[in-house]
Automatic annotation (TrEMBL), chain A:
Segments traversing the membrane: 21-42, 54-75, 82-103, 109-127, 173-196, 225-246, 267-294, 306-330
Keywords of the record: Cell inner membrane, Cell membrane, Membrane, Transmembrane, Transmembrane helix, Transport
GO CC, any one term: plasma membrane
Pfam families assigned: BPD_transp_2
Organism classification: Bacteria, Pseudomonadati, Pseudomonadota, Alphaproteobacteria, Hyphomicrobiales
Annotated membrane topology: Multi-pass membrane protein
Protein name: Autoinducer 2 import system permease protein LsrC
Source superkingdom: Bacteria
Automatic annotation (TrEMBL), chain B:
Protein name: Autoinducer 2 import system permease protein LsrD
Localization in the cell: Cell membrane
Alphabetical UniProt keywords: Cell inner membrane, Cell membrane, Membrane, Transmembrane, Transmembrane helix, Transport
Pfam families listed in its UniProt record: BPD_transp_2
Entry keyword Cell membrane: yes
Length: 339, 332, 510
C-alpha cells in the first residue's frame, strides 16, 4: 500500500506480460542452443556440419507446415488437415508430372499452389462461414483429403523414376554450400513473417485472435479474416507438399501422415498460443527446428523411434501449460474474470 | 429458437432410425446373407470398440470439452494387458486393472483440462501422442500375441447359442449405464449445465472441476474396456492399436446430435448414430467399397453432422431475426 | 466548475435520430426514439439499466441494424453496416469495459482499421507510432505507444480508446459510461478531455447513470425508460428530482415502501478482517438474522468481489468468515451453499441462470442431491418444487418447462430468487437484484426481500441504486477502493452522506 496515484498501479504484472510476450522466440532459441549443446556433449557426431545440415534439411519443410499452422492458430483456430493437404497436393502434383513428361517448372510450382489454396479455402468456408468448430471441420477434411488421395491413387505410388529429373535435383542443389531446400524454406518463412508483421492483413489476424468480441465491436470482419487465414494455410501446405514430394522422390499415399501433429507441436513449442493472438511464424519455424533437432539427437543416441511420439505429445502439453500461465497473467492484468 | 430446442432432438433420432433402416435395406440388396441373424449380430462387432469410446466422448462433449486421446488410451490398455498376460495374472484380475489404467489416463487429461484450465483440444492432442508413445515404449516393437484364450473371451466369444457377441452385451450394458447416468442422475444434469454455462453452474454449487475430471476418467475407463475387446478381437497388443479410429468416434458423437459446444444431445442419438455408421460401413464392405472410400464417406458425414445445426440456424435466420451478433461473437 | 458557453446560438444538429425501433425476436429492445445531437454540446443519455441505451449506441455505430426509423448524419440518412464505416463518417464510441486487443501495442490498437501505409502497402510503423503519440497527447496521456495493451489499467484503456476514437476525424463521440470504473481523479481528467473536444466542436453523447455527471457535463439530456424515449430537454430545465422521476416513471418517494421496524436477532454472517490481495483489504462486518444490511459504493469499488469471496468464488487471502457461529473458509460455492449462504449474482444472465435451460432445471440445479433417491433425480418431485416456487415468487410463465431465455428480465430475476431460496439459506447476498428489470418487477423484488428478512433471513444487499439502498437497508456499509470506509445506521444515511463516503479516496482520510 503506497501513496502512489492509482493510475500507475500494478507495474509488476505489466512488465511480466510484456517481457514474456516479447521474449518467447528468444526463449526458444536459448532452449535450442541448450539442446544442441546437450546432444553435442552426448554424442560427437551431432555437431558436425554434415549432421547439422541434415537437421536443417529435415526442419526445412516442417518449418513451412508450422508456419501454415501458426497462421490459423493466431486467429484462434486450428487445422488438423495440414498433413492430408500436403499429401494430396504432393500426390496430385507428382502424378501430373509423371503423366505429362513435357511439364514445365512453372506448372510444377503452380499446380500444387492452386490445389493447396482450394483445399485451404474449403476449410475456411467450413470454419469461417459454416461456423463449424475448427477441430471438427478439419478433422472431417483431413479424412476427406486423405481418403481422396487413396481413391485417386488406387494404391499406386509415384516412383522417383517417373518424375522429371530436374524436379528432384533442384531441391538437392546447393547455393554457397547450403541446400536450396533450406534457403527456400528460410525465404518463405521470412516472407510470411514479414507479411504478418508489416501488412494490415497480418495485423488483423492477430486482432481477431486476440479478442474476438473487441474485433466485433470494432467492426472487423472476423469471418473474412479467418477464411483467408485458412486459404493462406492451404497455400503454404501446397508449397510444403511440393517440396516434400521433390525431396523424397517416391510419393506414396501416406506422405506427410501425422504432420498435423508435428506442425502443431512445432508452432506451440515455438510460442504460438492456441488461444489466439500471440506468437510468430518465426517462432513456429524455430519450433520445427527444435523438433527436428530432438528427432536427430534421438536417432544418434539410438533411442527407439517411439520416444519421438511421446516427446512430441509431452512437448505439446508442456507448451500449452506455459501458454495458459501467460494467458492467465494477461487476464489478470486486464482485469478479466476467471470463470 | 427458444422453447423448440428440446423437441428437435427426438426428430433427429427419428431421422437416424429411418436412415438406419434405409442403409439396412440397401445392404440387404447387396447380399442375400445380410438379413441373417448371425450376420446382423456379428456385424455389430465392427463398431463396438469405437462405440465404447463414443459413449465416453459423449459425456466429455456434453461438458463442452473434447478428448481425442481416447484411441491412444486403447493402445495403453492393450499393452498393459499384454504385460499382465505375460506375468500370468488371471484375466479376472487383469481386466479391472486395465480399466483402471484407462481411467487414470482419462483422469490425467481431466486434471489438465479442469484443474489447470488448459484447452482440452490441445491437451488431448498432446496426450494422444504421449499415450501412444508410452504404449510403444512399454510394448515391444513386434507386438504381443501370446494371449491365453481366457483373455480373448470378451472380444471374441459368443453367447445365446453362439449368436450374440459377448462384446455386444458389454456395449449394451455400457450404453444403458451411460444413458442412465446422463439422463436420469444429478451427475448428468450437472454435465449438461456445465456445457451450457460453466460460470452459472459453478455459481449454482456445481463442482465443475470434479465433474469434469470424473467425466474424463469415465471416458478413459470405457477406453480401457475397449482395449479388452480389442485384444479379444485381434489377439494382439501393440503401440499402434486403434490408431486413427478417433474419426469414427467423433463422427458418431456429432452425428448422434451431441452439440460439440456442449450442453445438448442425447445418448440414444449417439447409439443410433453408431448403428447407422456401423450399418453403412458393413454395407460398403458388402459392396466391396474399399477402406479409403469408407474414410471419405465418414469424413463427409462428420462435416454434414456439424453443418446440421448451422444449416438449421441459417434457415431459422431467414424466417425470423437472429439472436444478436454480439452473442455470436462472444460465443466463439 | 464548468461554465457552459453563453447561450445565444444553438448550432444546427449534426446527428438526428428519427423514430428508431428495434426488436430481438419477440423482445422489443427499442421503440420510437427520436432526438438531435448538436456539435459543440454534450448530450446526456440516461435511463435505468435495460432502458435501451446500449442498443441505441449499437444502432448508431452500425453494430446492430434498426428495424424502424432512420439515422441522419449531417443532413443525409445513413445506415452503417460496421463500426468501421461509422468511424469513417465521423462517429465513434467508447465503451464502459474497454474493447481493445490485449496482445497488440497501443499504437496498433489506435491505428487498427486505418493504418498509415508505407511502401508496398505495408504498415508505416513510425508514422503509426507518431500518430498514436499525438492522439494520446490530445487526451493528455503520455503512455508509450509501443507498449502492449495487456497490463494497462482500466483508466489507461479508457484513454487509449478515446485516442482511437480521435484518430478518425470524429464528429460525434459516444461515451458509454466511461467513468464507471474510474477513480474521481481519473474521471475528472477524462472529463477535461471531453470538454476540450466539445469546445472544438465535437458533438458528444454521454451515457451515464451518475446524475452529478449530467449536471457537471451536459447541455442536453435525453431520458429513456423501458426502451422508449421519454423526453429530451435542455439540462438547465431539469433538476435531479425531475430527472429521477423521468427515469423511473414516478416520484422518488412513491417507489419504496420503507420497511417497518424489523425484529433483529443474532449474528448470522460475521466477517472479520477479510482480504483479497490487490482487490479489497481488511473488511469486517456482520449481518444479523432478520436484518437487511445495505452495501453501497461506486462501481468497481470491490463490493461484488467481497460478496463473491464470501460465496467461495475466489477464496480470501486473509480473514475469517463465521456463519451461524461456525467458522468457514470459503472455497467454493458448493461448500458455501451447503453452509447456508446463497448469492444472487450481479450478472444474472451470465452467472445467475443457465439461459438455454428450463425454469425447472434452473431452480433445482443447486439442490439436485436432495431431490434424488439413489442418485436418480425424482423428476416429478422436481417439477412440483419448481411449480410451487414459481408461484411463490410470482414468475409469469406458461409452464415451468419454459426456457429461461424466453422470459423477461424481471421474470428471470424471480426464477433466480426461486433458485437460491430453494437451497433454504440462512444468509442471502443480493448483488444488484433490481439491475435491469422493469419497475413492476422491481417493486415485487423489494417486497420479496423485505418478506424474507421478516422471516429471519440475514440479507446483505449490494446496490448502486441509492434510493433503493436507503429505503431497503436497516444499516448501510460503504465500500471505497476495496475498503470499508463508512457505516451508517438507518436513520443517519442520506444520499449525500453515502455518496460522499463512496467517493472518498484511498490515501485520503483513511
Amino acid at each position: 500500500m503506497s501513496e502512489a496515484p492509482s493510475v500507475a498501479a500494478r507495474p509488476g504484472s505489466r512488465n511480466l506480460v510484456e517481457v514474456v510476450l516479447r521474449l518467447r522466440e528468444a526463449g526458444v532459441v536459448v532452449f535450442l542452443v541448450v539442446l544442441g549443446l546437450a546432444f553435442g556433449l552426448a554424442t560427437d557426431r551431432f555437431l558436425s556440419v554434415q549432421n547439422l545440415t541434415t537437421v536443417a534439411s529435415s526442419a526445412a519443410i516442417l518449418a513451412i507446415a508450422a508456419c501454415a499452422q501458426a497462421i490459423v492458430l493466431i486467429t484462434r483456430n486450428l487445422d488438423v488437415s495440414v498433413g492430408s493437404m500436403m499429401g494430396l497436393v504432393a500426390y496430385l502434383t507428382a502424378d501430373w508430372a509423371a503423366t505429362h513428361p513435357g511439364i514445365t517448372p512453372v506448372e510444377v510450382v503452380a499446380i500444387p499452389l492452386m490445389i493447396g489454396t482450394v483445399l485451404g479455402a474449403i476449410n475456411g468456408l467450413l470454419v469461417a462461414y459454416g461456423r463449424v468448430p475448427a477441430l471438427i471441420a478439419t478433422l472431417g477434411t483431413m479424412s476427406l483429403y486423405r481418403g481422396f488421395t487413396y481413391i485417386y491413387a488406387h494404391g499406386q505410388e509415384v516412383t522417383s523414376s517417373r518424375l522429371p529429373p530436374w524436379m528432384l535435383s533442384s531441391v538437392d542443389a546447393r547455393i554457397g554450400g547450403l541446400p536450396i531446400l533450406i534457403l527456400v524454406s528460410i525465404a518463405i518463412v521470412a516472407v510470411v513473417a514479414w507479411l504478418l508483421h508489416a501488412y494490415p492483413f497480418g495485423r488483423r489476424l492477430y486482432a481477431v485472435g486476440s479478442n474476438g468480441v473487441a474485433a466485433w465491436f470494432f467492426g472487423l470482419r472476423a469471418e473474412r479474416v479467418v477464411f483467408f487465414a485458412y486459404v493462406a494455410c492451404g497455400f503454404l501446405c501446397g508449397i510444403a507438399g511440393l517440396l516434400y514430394a521433390a525431396r523424397v522422390g517416391t510419393v506414396t499415399v501416406v506422405l506427410a501422415n501425422g504432420w498435423e501433429m508435428s506442425s502443431l507441436a512445432s508452432a506451440v513449442i515455438g510460442g504460438v498460443s492456441v488461444s489466439g493472438g500471440s506468437g510468430t511464424v518465426v517462432g513456429a519455424a524455430l519450433g520445427a527446428v527444435v523438433l527436428a533437432t530432438i528427432d536427430n539427437g534421438l536417432v544418434l543416441l539410438r533411442v527407439p523411434e517411439f520416444w519421438r511420439m511421446f516427446i512430441q505429445g509431452a512437448a505439446i502439453v508442456a507448451a500449452v501449460a506455459v501458454d495458459a500461465l501467460i494467458a492467465e497473467a494477461i487476464r489478470r492484468s486486464t482485469g478479466g474474470r476467471r470463470r | 429458437m427458444s422453447t423448440s430446442a428440446k423437441r428437435q432432438l427426438p426428430l433427429w433420432e427419428m431421422a437416424l432410425v429411418v436412415a438406419i433402416l434405409a442403409a439396412g435395406a440397401w445392404s440387404s440388396t447387396l447380399s442375400p446373407y445380410y438379413l441373417s441373424v448371425d450376420q446382423l449380430f456379428g456385424s455389430t462387432r465392427a463398431f463396438i470398440i469405437p462405440g465404447l469410446l463414443a459413449l465416453g466422448l459423449a459425456v466429455v462433449v456434453s461438458l463442452g470439452e473434447i478428448d481425442i486421446s481416447l484411441a491412444s488410451i486403447i493402445a495403453v490398455g492393450t499393452v498393459a494387458l499384454s504385460k499382465l498376460s505375460a506375468a500370468g495374472v488371471p484375466f479376472a484380475v487383469a481386466a479391472p486393472i486395465v480399466v483402471a489404467i484407462g481411467a487414470l489416463c482419462g483422469a490425467f487429461n481431466g486434471l489438465l483440462v479442469a484443474k489447470w484450465r488448459l484447452p482440452s483440444l490441445a491437451v488431448t492432442l498432446g496426450t494422444m501422442g504421449a499415450f501412444r508413445g508410452l504404449a510403444f515404449i512399454a510394448g515391444s516393437e513386434v507386438g504381443y500375441t501370446d494371449f491365453d484364450d481366457v483373455y480373448l473371451w470378451l472380444g471374441s466369444d459368443y453367447v445365446f447359442g453362439g449368436v450374440v457377441p459377448v462384446s455386444l452385451i458389454l456395449f449394451a450394458l455400457a450404453a444403458a449405464g451411460v444413458w442412465f447416468l446422463m439422463h436420469r442422475t444429478g451427475y448428468g444434469r450437472r454435465c449438461f449445465s456445465i456445457g451450457l454455462n460453466p460460470d452459472a453452474a459453478w455459481f449454482a454449487g456445481v463442482d465443475v472441476v470434479g465433474v469434469k475430471i470424473r467425466a474424463y476418467a469415465l471416458a478413459g475407463a470405457l477406453a480401457g474396456a475397449a482395449a479388452l475387446v480389442w485384444v479379444g478381437q485381434y489377439g494382439s497388443a501393440r503401440g499402434d492399436n486403434a490408431d486413427g479410429s478417433i474419426l469414427f468416434v467423433v463422427t458418431a458423437v456429432v452425428l448422434g446430435g451431441m452439440d460439440i459446444n456442449g450442453g445438448r444431445g442425447t445418448l440414444s442419438g449417439v447409439v443410433l448414430a453408431l448403428f447407422l455408421l456401423g450399418t453403412i460401413r458393413n454395407g460398403l464392405g458388402l459392396a466391396n467399397v474399399g477402406g479409403p472410400t469408407q474414410t471419405v464417406v465418414l469424413g463427409g458425414l462428420l462435416v454434414a453432422g456439424v453443418l446440421r445445426p448451422a444449416a438449421a440456424a441459417a434457415i431459422a435466420r431467414l424466417s425470423r431475426p437472429a439472436k444478436t451478433r454480439e452473442a455470436r461473437a462472444q460465443g466463439e | 466548475m464548468p461554465t457552459v458557453a453563453a447561450e445565444p446560438v444553438i448550432p444546427a444538429p449534426i446527428l438526428l435520430l428519427r423514430r428508431i425501433g428495434k426488436s430481438f425476436g419477440p423482445v422489443r429492445a427499442l421503440e420510437d426514439v427520436s432526438f438531435d445531437v448538436r456539435p459543440g454540446r454534450v448530450h446526456g443519455l440516461v435511463g435505468e439499466n435495460g432502458a435501451g441505451k446500449s442498443t441505441l449506441v449499437k444502432i448508431i455505430t452500425g453494430l446492430e441494424e434498426a428495424d424502424e426509423g432512420e439515422v441522419i448524419l449531417a443532413g443525409r440518412a445513413v445506415r452503417f453496416r460496421t463500426p468501421i464505416e461509422a468511424r469513417n463518417h465521423g462517429i465513434a464510441a467508447v465503451y464502459q469495459d474497454p474493447k481493445l486487443f490485449p496482445h497488440l501495442s497501443i499504437a496498433e490498437n489506435i491505428a487498427m482499421g486505418a493504418y498509415p501505409s508505407g511502401w508496398f502497402g505495408t504498415v508505416d510503423r513510425r508514422a503509426m507510432i507518431d500518430t498514436a503519440r499525438e492522439h494520446l497527447a490530445r487526451v493528455g496521456s503520455d503512455l508509450d505507444p509501443k507498449r502492449t495493451v495487456a497490463g494497462l489499467s482500466v483508466a489507461e484503456h479508457q484513454f487509449v480508446e478515446i485516442a482511437r476514437a480521435l484518430s478518425s476525424d470524429v464528429r460525434v463521440l459516444i461515451l458509454d459510461e466511461p467513468t464507471s470504473a474510474l477513480t474521481p481523479t481519473e474521471a475528472e481528467r477524462l472529463f477535461a478531455v471531453v470538454r476540450s473536444l466539445r469546445d472544438r466542436g465535437t458533438a458528444i453523447i454521454l451515457i451515464t447513470h451518475r446524475l452529478e455527471e449530467i449536471e457537471a457535463m451536459c447541455d442536453d439530456v435525453t431520458v429513456l425508460r423501458d426502451r422508449r424515449h421519454v423526453a429530451t430537454l435542455p439540462r438547465a430545465e431539469v433538476d435531479r428530482a425531475k430527472l429521477v422521476q423521468l427515469m423511473v416513471g414516478r416520484p422518488l418517494e412513491a417507489l419504496f415502501a420503507r420497511r417497518e421496524r424489523p425484529t433483529i436477532g443474532e449474528d448470522v454472517l460475521r466477517v472479520e478482517h477479510l482480504s483479497l490481495d490487490g482487490v479489497f483489504d481488511d473488511v469486517s462486518f456482520s449481518v444479523r438474522a432478520g436484518e437487511i444490511v445495505g452495501m453501497g459504493g461506486l462501481v468497481g469499488a470491490g463490493r461484488s468481489e467481497i460478496a463473491q469471496t464470501l460465496f467461495g468464488i475466489t477464496p480470501p487471502t486473509a480473514g475469517r468468515v463465521v456463519l451461524k457461529g461456525v467458522e468457514v473458509a470459503p472455497q467454493s460455492p458448493k461448500q458455501m451453499l451447503a453452509r447456508g449462504l446463497a448469492y444472487l449474482p450481479e450478472d444474472r444472465d451470465r452467472d445467475g441462470l443457465i439461459m438455454p435451460e428450463t425454469i425447472t432445471h434452473n431452480i433445482t440445479l443447486p439442490i439436485l442431491d436432495s431431490l434424488s433417491h439413489w442418485t436418480v433425480v425424482d423428476r416429478a418431485g422436481e417439477r412440483r418444487l419448481a411449480e410451487s416456487a414459481s408461484q411463490t415468487y410470482r414468475v409469469l410463465t406458461p409452464s415451468v418447462e419454459t426456457i429461461v431465455s424466453a422470459l423477461s428480465g424481471g421474470n428471470r430475476q424471480k426464477v433466480a430468487f426461486a433458485k437460491w431460496l430453494a437451497t433454504e439459506p440462512v444468509a442471502l447476498i443480493l448483488d444488484e437484484p433490481t439491475h435491469g428489470i422493469d419497475i413492476g418487477s422491481k417493486a415485487q423484488v423489494h417486497a420479496m426481500v423485505a418478506q424474507l428478512a421478516d422471516r429471519g433471513l440475514a440479507v446483505l444487499l449490494i446496490s448502486s441504486d441509492l434510493p433503493e439502498l436507503l429505503a431497503m437497508s436497516d444499516r448501510i456499509l460503504v465500500i471505497a477502493e476495496g475498503a470499508l470506509v463508512a457505516e451508517f445506521a438507518r436513520d443517519e444515511a442520506t444520499q449525500e452522506s453515502v455518496m460522499m463516503a463512496a467517493a472518498r479516496q484511498r490515501g485520503g482520510k483513511r
